[in-house]
Amino acid sequence: MDMLRRTLQGRLSQVMGEDALFSDRFHLTVGFERAALRSWQELGSEARRKLEAHARGVNLYLDKQDNLPPQFALTGHEPGEWKPEHSLLLHRYLSWIMAGNMETELFLSALKADVGEVKAQELFPRYPDEGKEVIEQGDHPEFEEEEAAKLLNLADVGTAGIDIYGNEMPGSNSWAVRSEQENKALLASDMHLMLEIPPVWFLQSLKVEDEIDVYGAIMPGIPGIIAGFNQDISWGLTNVGADVKDLFKIRLAEGKEDHYRYEGELRSLDILEKEIPVEGRDEPEELVVRKTHHGPIVSEVVGLDRGRALSLKWTGFRATAEPERMLELMTVGDWQDFSLVASEFANPSLNFIYADQEGNIGYQMGGKIPIRSEGEGLLPAPGWNEDYEWEDYIPPEELPSIFNPEEGHVVSANNKVIGEDYPHHITHEWTPPYRAERIERRLREMDNTDLEEQLDIQGDKYNLQAEKLLPVFLSALRSGKALDGEKEAALEILEKWKDEPVDGSEMAAPLLYHSLYLQVIENTFRDEMGDRLYAHLLDYNALVNVIDEILISGESDWFIYEDKRNEKARDAIIRASFQQVVEELKEEKNYPPSEWEWGDRHELNLSHRLGEIELLSKFLDRGPISPGGSGVTPPNLAYHFSEPFQIVHGAPWRFAVNTDNMSGRDVLAPGNSGHPFSPHYDDQLENCSELQHRPIPETGKFEEEPELLKIRPE
Q: What residue ranges do the domains of the chain occupy?
């Protein structure tokens, strides 16, 4: 709580010195704290009262605590008073990190500047089966090749400081299924975030007599259950990934430093002067933040030329009332109230999955999603006229929603949820469909509507991406020269795996497949892009959708190999990549391919932030464990493409509930405590390794007598 608060307030340099200045400049320029204060001023009295009560509880703990966590002793500072608006500050960060389009706009702009428009357009976002690229039309500002590096610097700083999600768009699974014969509904949900110690979620059973009786996950610092169940309903969440950020190219007035041009007139910039205390310095760092009517000029953080000024517009700058919605969610009792509350949830944009005791299920999108005059937010837009302004926001009643669908289930795995006839733009960066399609397939094939089946789906390691791409890979590999030795043995392993591509931790085929996939990407793009741009390609939200589409079609100007082009070049790249992969693995393993294992490379090490200090790592860190799966299977045990194959992303908390009696099972990685001396620090680690769950008691009831904290007013 304290470190994230300090990061967002732009006060890291106060304890970490000059190394944190880049982060502080960015967070102060964007203005997370300004946005939080704006929302605090607009909150209703009941939500303010509860946030104030939460803050008093935090401060009471701090006042009576003489044994603070070791990070405070190591950094030599105390956490300081917690204020109610600090909870809104943390919530603003959740909203920021769950919408990554600013980085996409910067990457695509740098890509166009570096490789030209034709090749860049091939990598613009697309979704499987759309059959076309999404190409921004219009008078978008062009950048010079030498400016590409500064654009990428700005993309880097977009996730500066503490990043609880890694450098990719957060993904999750949530679904509900109903049985008309038994008049019951089941809900399963797992919210995928960064996997670390302590976990980002903590579990809480919250009971206030005649008011609240709810179980679920909280994020420390933000009061209220984020997902879970009460006595009447259960709900889960996934990220929409809506495009709610736009960069605008600003024409600053020549000779008038504090003005910019808009619709042929001069407008004054809002000027904010900030001081940043820096550890080890006598004088603070000075920062000047300049704002247009769109928002802050963020390009100055990385020194982009005055003639290339970029101003950021983001829905998170508006005053919104998420704490009120979260408190309401804990007590609603039916679909009508639930869908109303969910549809009015502003930031971040979320997919809400619902099930209740009457056997009803539903889906409701929530979010403040802009309606643009022109364009779809993929490139920085002209900010000198009204052509690309936001006209309004999608009305809550027009957001996607469904109740008791005929197929008997609803699924969200960050996949595309709208058809071509939906009248509003939401995003082009939907998560690849593989997890959603696999969950859908399992639900259609399901014999029994029971809880165990839902838990099994959460741990399903079937690789639907491999099912679609393996025919392309195998055809290319068999069309070339005959292979020998380990290469032929490795190819036969992939051929046997084709009919049942499961990412088992003890199998060789997943290791070969995922290594080959990344090697093909590298051999296709790295040389022409260069290391810096290529590194950002690997973090690009739309990468998998784009790459898989061109791999299947074989048609791309990026496929160049010696004198070959398009499909023939693609096949040649696949063959060369396969030989590289086998050679590297053979050198590393020094034993036959049949003995290679995916789990040897694909491991999860749960690390504490203080584990970076070598003396503390053995005491605080846990792992490694090798649960199998990957980023394209339902467990979503993902790794950064730039740092394969260490697992960094997955579901800290998985749960499933039978709404008939509001009981179920869950698991939290690695346990429900951040204190290394607590028995609950890592008591669920083995369950996480096996993707197994533990019983959840009915709300208000426990199988064992719990430790209770009773709070009474003085």
A: 464-501+508-596
Note the pLDDT tens digit of each residue in 602-626.
999 998 877 667 777 888 899 899 9
- Cβ pair 262, 377 in contact under 8 A: no
Spacing of C-alpha 544 from chain mean position = 15
- For the chain, percent of residues with pLDDT exceeding 70: 92
User: Model's pTM, two decimal places?
Assistant: 0.93
Q: Are 391 and 372 in contact (CB under 8 A)?
A: yes
SS3 113: helix
| Nearest CA among 197, 260, 203, 263 for reference residue 229 | 203
CA distance 6 to 221: 13
Signed CA dihedral, 651, 657, 662, 663: sign only: negative
Helix (H) or strand (E) holding 391: strand 390-393
DSSP-derived pairing of the beta strands 381-382 and 245-249 = parallel
Range list of β-strands (E), 131-241 = 172-179, 184-194, 202-208, 212-219, 222-229, 233-239
In angstroms, the CA 479 to CA 461 distance is 30
CA–CA dist 240, 169 (Å, integer) = 10
Closest to 62 measured CA to CA, from 77, 43, 75: 77
Of the listed ranges 21-25, 418-422, 707-711, the least confidently predicted one is 707-711
Position 92 pLDDT exceeds 50: yes
What is the Cα–Cα distance from 326 to 206, expressed in whole angstroms? 14
Q: What is the reported pLDDT for 162?
A: 46
The more confident residue out of 433 and 63 is: 433
**What is the DSSP code (8-state) at residue 608?**
B
Burial 559-576 (b: 16+ CB within 10 A, else e): bbbeeeebebbbbbbbbb
Does an H or E element contain 667, and which?
A: strand 663-668
Which letter, b or e, does each residue of 423-451 get, where b requires 16 or more Cβ atoms within 10 Å of its Cβ?
eebbbbbbbbbbbbbbbbebbeebeebbb
Considering the chain, what percentage of its residues have pLDDT values greater than 90? 68
Residue pair 86/505 in contact (Cβ under 8 Å)? The answer is no
Dist CA 192 CA 200 (whole Å): 10
Neighbours of 610 (CB within 10 A): 18
Contact yes or no for 200/194 (Cβ under 8 A)? yes
CB-based contact 245:101 (threshold 8 Å): yes
Distance CA 427, CA 164 (A): 22
